[in-house]
Each structure stands twice: as structure tokens, then as C-alpha cells.
Amino acid sequence: MEAAPRNRAVERLLRGLYSAVLYVLVPVTVYHLIWRGFRQAEYLERWGERYAAYRTPPLDGCIWVHAVSVGEVNAAAPLVNALLDLRPDLRLLVTTITPTGSARVRALWGERVEHVYLPYDLSGAVRRFLAHVRPRLALVLETELWPNLLFCCRDHGVPAYLVNARLSERSLRGYRALRPLVGRALRTLTRVAAQSEADAGRFVQLGARPDAVSVLGNLKFDIRVDEAARRTAAAFAAHSGGRRAWIAASTHPEEEAAVIAMHRRLRARWPDLLLLWAPRHPERFRPVAQACVEAGWRVATRQLTQWPDGEDDVFVIDTLGELVHFYACAEVAFVGGSLQPVGGHNLLEPAALGVPVVTGPHLHNFADIAQRMDEAGALRIGADADAVAAELEALLGDDDARAAMVAEGLRLVKEGRGALALTLDMITPELPPA
């Protein structure tokens, strides 16, 4: 048997086995939606989109960007904004998987872009999705390696790019069982635009064609700091009486007790210190506020009071899409998802707002950025919650150290820009004529 027919036969076999397993698991997807719906009601809505059942007219000829959730939407924002500015004639579709990602899309762009949920990676659902949206180009963010999605893009003649692509050592190991299938799916991509040389090497190890992998940098460096952040900082200072504040951002449930302990320790030295707290997931907004009340603190929330006053001890940011603006209100930031093996969250947002950054040790999702910031002196990494608290206390007590970290963080962000321009150059030949 010749190589090409043999490879196609292997691909059909692997796809068939993969799809068969997914179809067997369809009842599990329904259970998952119901289970998540008990914690976040939005998961009980728009189920048709999860299986590519639509009542709206086809989009036909859109440029499609897929960003799984809030972090990826924020990473895609410079690219989407640039496309909206440069080519207002284009019809853009941004898909997500999570309701928080959906809310972030609407908060950023309103009706300027189309939005639906990406369906589960069932072969029939993916084909129906592509037949409905009829994209001219697919731009998939970071590490969304869904085999049926990539194979079906090829089968429908849709050029697909993996943009701002990253792949940690941990994720590479996690793909071990599916490597024969995922490797073939990767080879359908027009190009993999990796964040770093290390990411590029891991994609090649996983099966991407070496000649289709480029290192373009990280779109997160191209963050746009707008006037809204400065207005938020000014309004915050006016309502809170100019009090000192620190922020705990994108925290996960297992980190909440640690944040309460940190704030208690810091207030022992600075009794008037205010904590701004932005949990990662909306279902944690109310529990976090309640935990602070039980700790004996007076609590304000963004939804109920809009701003903290001079008597509040904790201000819970229980809204979506405002975290970046509230970084500008703090003297130092702890970025969560790093005290447990989540892998960390965006470290560049506070740095771009001129805020010193402290994290825990689990940073595998941002390994390259964390290393560069650490080497530049723009990041402090605590080995555990006590070490993080000590770093926060040291920074709050040292104006010069904070200023030095701010300067290095801003320099690093400025010097890291450029991925946006390179990405636009890469995809421009695929765009329709203006």
C-alpha cells in the first residue's frame, strides 16, 4: 500500500475511534451542562449552540476567531481590535466555550462582532457549525487542539491558523495518548504561530510540520491600556478617600483561605489597607464576599455599592471585564491560579498598568512570560501562600522596590510588543480584498 492511501486509512480509523468515543459520551456532556448550570445559570442556556443547532441565518464568509474563555478572549482582543479598525468591512465571528468568555466578548465588542458557542467536537456538530458560519479563515487561539474541528476545516477548505500558540510541557505529556491523532490534526493547519521557541519545539514534537511553525511572540504584550483604567483609578481614589489597596486577582476556590490570611497579616501592619478581590469565576463572587463578612470585615461589592468607601475593608469585584481597570487602583497585585496547579493567569495585565506582580509557584501556562518577568526583576514568586504574603508585605513597605518593579514591568511590556503586527502580516493574504 502506498504511503498516502495508508495514511488516509490510518486517519479515518483514528478519527472514527475518536468520534465513536465522543458520541458515547454525549450524555455526559448533558450532565456536565446541568451540573455547571447549578453553579452558573448561563450554562443552562443556549444548548442548541453546543450541538450546532441554529435558528439564525448563516453568516457566510466571516473571519472566525475562536477563544475558549476569558483569558483567550483577552489575548485575542488586540487582533480582533486591529481587524475591526483596519477592515471594518469584514464580518467577524468570535466563538467561546464558556459563558464568562461569551460575556467578555459582548463587553468588549457588543454587536460589532458575531458570537456563538463553539460546539462540542462531535464530527456532525462541527460540520453543521462550519456549514452555518461558512468561514473564509479560522484563527484558533493558543491550545485549542480539537481534532474533528481541525480535520473538518481542512475538509471544508477553510485555512486554519493556530494563533498565539502555546503548549506547556505538562500539556504535551497530556496529549500522549492522543498523539497519533492530534499530530495528524496539527498537520492540517496552515500555520502554527507560536509564542516562543520552546512552544514551537513542543508543537513540532506533537506532530506539527516544522516548516509550518513560526515564532511570532505573544499577543498579550500588545495589550491596549485605555483611558477607562485611568478613569476607574480616579473614581476609586475619590470614593475610597485615597486609601492604599492591594488586589487579589483571578483567584480559585482553594486560594481563598490564603487570600483571607494574607489580608489579615497585611492589615496587622496597615490597619486601613483595602483589599480588592476579583475571583476568577462568577460562582465564587458571593461565597468570597460571605467569607470576608465571616472574617469580621466590612464588605462592599461592585454590583451593590459600585465603589468602596472609607470604612470598607474588602471590595469584591463581582463583575466581568473590569479586572484590568481595577489593577490601576492597587499598589501591588497577587495573580491567582498560581498557588495550586492551575498554571497561573495573565501576568502582563498588571505589569502594563504599572503594578508590581506577585504570584505563587504554579506558572506552567505562562512559563515564558514568568521567566522573562522574573529575570527582569518585574515579578516576585512565592513558594507558598506564606511566602506570597511575605512578598506582598515587603513590597507594600518599600516604595523604591515597587517603583523598580513598575519600571521593569513597563519596559518588558513595551519591548515585547510586535506579535500583533507579525500576526496581521501572516493572515493578510487570506483576507478577502477590501
TrEMBL record:
InterPro entries, sorted: Glyco_trans_1 (IPR001296), Glycos_transf_N (IPR007507), Glycos_transf_N_sf (IPR038107), Kdotransferase (IPR039901)
Pfam families the UniProt entry points to: Glycos_transf_1 (PF00534), Glycos_transf_N (PF04413)
Compartment(s): Cell envelope; Cell membrane
GO molecular function, one term: Kdo transferase activity
TM stretches of this protein: 16-35
Pathway note: Bacterial outer membrane biogenesis; LPS core biosynthesis
Record-linked SUPFAM superfamilies: UDP-Glycosyltransferase/glycogen phosphorylase (SSF53756)
Swiss-Prot/TrEMBL keywords: Cell inner membrane, Cell membrane, Glycosyltransferase, Lipopolysaccharide biosynthesis, Membrane, Transferase, Transmembrane, Transmembrane helix
Domain of life: Bacteria
Reactions it catalyzes: lipid IVA (E. coli) + CMP-3-deoxy-beta-D-manno-octulosonate = alpha-Kdo-(2->6)-lipid IVA (E. coli) + CMP + H(+)
Keyword match Transmembrane: yes
NCBIfam families (UniProt xref): PRK05749.1-4
Function text: Involved in lipopolysaccharide (LPS) biosynthesis. Catalyzes the transfer of 3-deoxy-D-manno-octulosonate (Kdo) residue(s) from CMP-Kdo to lipid IV(A), the tetraacyldisaccharide-1,4'-bisphosphate precursor of lipid A.
Protein name: 3-deoxy-D-manno-octulosonic acid transferase
Organism per entry: Luteimonas colneyensis
Lineage start: Bacteria, Pseudomonadati, Pseudomonadota, Gammaproteobacteria, Lysobacterales
